Each structure stands twice: as C-alpha cells, then as structure tokens.
Amino acid sequence: MQHRIIVLGAGYAGAIAAGRLARRLRPEDVAITLVNAEPDFVERVRLHQLATGQTLKPRPFTEMFRGTGVRVTVARVDSIDADRRLVTLDTGAELEYDTLVYALGSGWNSHGVPGTAEHADELASRPGALRLRARLAALPAGRPVLVVGGGLTGVEAATEIAESRADLKVALATSGELGDWLAPKGRAHLRRVFTGLGITVHEHATVDRVAAGHVVTANGEIESDVTVWTGGFAVHPIAAATTLEITSSGQIVVDETMRSVSHPDVYAVGDAAWAMGPGDKALRMSCASGTPAAWQAADAIAARLTGAKLPHVPIRYFNQCISLGRREGLIQYVTADDRAKPAALTGRLAALYKELICKGAAWTVANPLLGLPARRRPLSRPQTTEVKA
C-alpha cells in the first residue's frame, strides 16, 4: 500500500514541499496529494505589482506538477481531524493521510482595528490585490492613497503605487519610524527614495480606526480615498480548531525538522509554523523562512520513510530584499538571526538583485523535478499506521 502524503496549501512553502517530496520518494511507494483553493500558483511577493496594473505570468499547477506524480486537488480545507488523520474539503470529500504537511499560510491581520473590513484594502491575497487594482485604476488624479504599516509589505506597496501613479498623493503611516529595523545606510536610502517619489510619511501614527475617506490616529485624521492595510499577517484559523499544539497566534509548534511536537505525522511549513531559528528567535513569516522550512520538512519526511540519515541544516537569514518600485531596491544584509548589519546594497543593482530572487523562487516552484539530481529512494518498511479511535 502506498504511503499517503497530503500537502495543504500551495504557496511557496507548500508547493516546494510537494515538489521536493516527489524528487525524494518513488511514485510507486507514495501518493502525494496537493490541495489548494486556487488552480494556479500565486507569486505573493509580487502582489503589490499586480495591484498597480502589472501582469504576472500564469503558472497552473496542472502544468507545474505534470509528470511528477503529485496529484493536484483544487478545493478549500473545511476541517482537519489530527487524531483520525482525516482532512475534510469544502467539496465534501474526505482525505485520509499517513503524513500531513500543513502549509495553509496566512492572510491579512487587521488587529481588530474598527473599520478595516469595511474601508481598507489588503495585499495578502490575489483577490485582495485585484480589488485594490480596480480601485486604484478608478481613482482620479490628485486623490490621496494611504498605506498603513511600515514593514516590508507596506514599504513595497507605497513605492510601487507612487511610481506607477505619480499623479496620486501617496502617504504611509507607521507606528514607529520609517525603516527603523534597517541599518543607517538602509534607512537613509529608503528616505531618499520616498522623498524622490513624493511619498508623505506619518511616523508614530498608530491607526485607531479606518473610515470612508480617512483614518483616525492619536495625532488626528489622515485623508485617504483608498487605504491599503499592511499591518501584519494572521495565520489560517483551521489549525486552532484541531488538537495540534499551537501558539496563541494559531501557529503549529514544530521541532527543528518542522515536525509537530504533538502529532508526529504532521509537519508545518511557512507562515503556519512556529519554528525556532538562530538565537532562539522564532522564524518570521516570510518567503525567506518558508522556502528553507519546506526543504527541511520534505527532506526529513523522506529520510524517516526511507531510513536515511535525518538532515540537520539550521535555517538562518542572509538578507532582506526590498523592492522600491521597478527602478530602485534595497538589500539589507542581516545576521543569522535577522538583525541588520551595517552593509546594504542600494539602487538599480539592488532592484535587479531582488528581481533575480523573485524569479528564482518562482522557477523553483514551477520546476519541481529540475535543478539538483533527484534521489528517489524506496521506503524502508511498510508505512501504514493505525488510526486513533
């Protein structure tokens, strides 16, 4: 009997995990099913480009995984019974598994701020980016657009909008200082780019309420015809309804191989996982964390099933890649635990570097059997396991 592996979610982490498993295990030994709500891959790191009218290359999963042995199921996950090893889909189908890879990712996080659902747009999903795209396209010249959130997503969104629509009055509101996580060189470059693009920055401006036509902060109101909310991410709520051990944020607690500490037949990767990195710091929600986590989980699953040596490759950070429109960029070099180093790459070269990173990530997802030679090994023993009553 084949060992049944189900991968839930086909963002960067889930799609990479499924492809890597197909490279490591023989198709006659395992049945790999990839479940995703949409039929094609979404380049989440480019959603700010989609929102400003740019066209992204379509990447259907049926083409990406053709010939790999991975079966793609387009559906939403309704529930997971981690004790019975059962996934229920919105189609009514029930999928039993021997190993589960949970990669349902995250969406936008309003932090409970009143008015966000009614009056703000988000960039954490393709439907959100497309709605924002339509709103920006319909906005007359001279009207105000406010990006709330001074993190990576907010900075990229504000600069992309300002560059593509120089006729709009673009502003950014952040609870701290602009680029306060960057080293001095990176902060200085960021301010230069914002100034050059005519972006107004509201620092120490925590938004208390979003309304039609403006937002309310402790310092007063900020006018905004379109408010883009980029104030962080919240994980998919499915895990919180299971018996899996999770954190207060809803992330699944995993060990260094991305294996659930409460259910050894479950692995979590990407934003859904609470994994510790260098310096005993939790890995942040990002593609930079999700991709190596997917490698780690897939290789650990393959090793445990085939009796091979368990891999031990600590996940660490090297840089933060930030696009500032299509002509400018910022590469902030960081320590293994993600603290800014003095060095940074800026300007056009940084923009090209970021573009190369984005293209490389998408290529890895779209070509699961290419790259390093595949090493498919047979299973070491029968892999069926009794299901708890």
From TrEMBL:
Pfam families documented for this protein: Pyr_redox_2 (PF07992)
Domain spans labelled FAD/NAD(P)-binding: 4-298
EC number: 1.6.5.-
Known cofactor(s): FAD
Keyword match Nucleus: no
Keywords: FAD, Flavoprotein, Oxidoreductase
Molecular function via GO: oxidoreductase activity
Coiled-coil stretches: none
InterPro entries: FAD/NAD-bd_sf, FAD/NAD-binding_dom, NADH-Q_oxidoreductase
Membership in a protein family: Belongs to the NADH dehydrogenase family.
The protein's name in its UniProt record: NAD(P)/FAD-dependent oxidoreductase
